[in-house]
Structures are given as structure tokens and as C-alpha cells.
Amino acid sequence: MAALTLASVARAQNPPDASQVQVKVVPVAAGVYMLEGMGGNIGLSVGTDDAFIIDDQYAPMTPRIKAAIATVTAKPVRFVVNTHWHGDHTGGNEAMAGSGAIVFAHENVRRRMSSEQFMAAFNSRIPASPRGALPVVTFSDTISFYINDDSVRTFHVANAHTDGDAIMFFRKANVAHMGDTFFNGMYPFIDVSTGGSVAGMIAAANRALEMSNAGTRFIPGHGPVTTRADLVRYRDMLVTVRRRVQPLVVQGRTLRQVLAAKPLADLDAQWGNGFMKPEQFLSIVYESLSRTRGRGARR
Prior knowledge:
This protein is 32% helix and 22% strand. It is an alpha/beta fold. The chain has a single domain, classed as Ribonuclease Z/Hydroxyacylglutathione hydrolase-like (Metallo-beta-lactamase, Chain A), CATH 3.60.15.10. Strands 1-2-3-4-5-6-9 form a 7-stranded mixed β-sheet. A 6-stranded mixed β-sheet has the order 10-11-12-13-14-15. Strands 7-8 form a two-stranded antiparallel ribbon. A hairpin with a 4-residue loop joins strand 7 (117-119) and strand 8 (124-126). It starts with 5 loop residues before the first helix and ends in an 8-residue tail after the last helix.
């Protein structure tokens, strides 16, 4: 599993030391791989055309990522698609663009990267990205790529992990890259301060499930490559979390009271051993549902 810490998300412009990190190339389907390193999982498509990647981790990782890509193709990276704005998914943009790649993302990703952002969950201000790191092509809803003998449909999911998330589906390979709408096997980080929400995370999982089948392989933003069944379990966990916490919010309970009630105690052993610890995750869920009080239970 790719290493991930609170600091690694919050300090996107000052990532941990990458010198000892090895990039692992994981075959997913014919012509599709996942790259694990430091930060969000990278999707890689290779074939008759040039290399195509989804996300690019931190800037210091770029030489190692390029070396890993070179183990499966000699062709250059032509396209980079960012699944959202966080630095552990976009930090390599500037170097990749400098090597000739074209960077694509949802329009909110460019907007977020263009100015200082505040991540309330970590009380951290993230500086604007360099001009050379900004996506040069943006989309509002969907965009498709026809590359390496496959068609890759990319679509925006609103207010999920952030307000600029994209899910990508390789039709021929039957692979979906979920970005950080999917933290496989663990509680997710939901960046409420930049538009994320519990309802949006559930909706994103449902949309991916609707377009998949039993043979679809899923690349999560963090965690190992997995199956549709694991995405179903993750979605069901989020639905259960909302069902338990929403009434407490509607009743006007304070965060302290909700934390003391431990409404997710039986889930914590399975889901609370990853990036987000139980109290951190519950606090974020409380914040998300408080912002949508009276509306969160509708989806």
C-alpha cells in the first residue's frame, strides 16, 4: 500500500523524503498498471500509442516514476489526468509537463491549484501551485481519451472527496481509477473545506458501481487494486456511517457529544487502521453532515 500520513496530505508543497521510496508496478489488466510509491496510486496505460497516466504523486518522486514507467514501455508520457487537486496526486505535474506531457483535470482542480487553499481538517494552508503545474486542459462534466486501443471515459463526480474529483473508466480493459473517492479497506479522508461531502462520496461509489460489472478491477486513490465486491463493502460502510451519525446531527448534538457516543465503534477495528483514525474520521463526517443538515439523508 502506498504510504500516506497526515503530513503528506496537508504539506503538499513540502513532502516527506522520497529518496528511499521504491515505486512498485502492479499489473491490473492488459496494458493497464498501477504504480505505488509515495502518495496517491498512479494509473498507467501503455500500448501502441504513448504512455498515459492518471495522477503523478509528489514532485520528488518524478524520476522514480519515470524509471518505473520505463520498465513497461519505452514511450514517453503524453497525457496526465489529475483526479483532484491534492499535492500527493498533482505534485509531479510541472516536471511531467516540462517533459512534454499535457495535463488534464476538472476545472475546479485548476481553480484550486491556482490559489492558496486552506485544509481545515489539518489547519493547514497550501500555497498556490507553480504556473507550470496547472492543468492546461479542463473539463466540466466528461471527457474521453482514445488511446492504446482503448477508450477511457473520464467523468466528474460532484462534492465527493473534493469539488473536483474525476473517475476514469477503461472500457476495453474494464478498469476504473477512482482517485480518492475510494480508500480501499480504510476510512477515507473527505476534504470538506474544499467541497467534499459524505453524500458525494456515496454517490461517487454508486456511480462507479452502476457502470461496472463483476469483472471490473478498481484502482483506489489509496490501498491495493481490488474488485467490485470491495467497493460495495466500502460504499455500504459509508452508508452505515451516515445513517448512524445523521440523526445525532439533526438532534443538535455537539461534536464532543458525538465523539463520546462512539457511533462507529464496531466499524473502527476494520476500517480505522489506515490513514484516518476513528476520531478524525468521525469529526470530518460530523462536519460534513452539519453543513448539509436536513439534506444529507436524502441520497
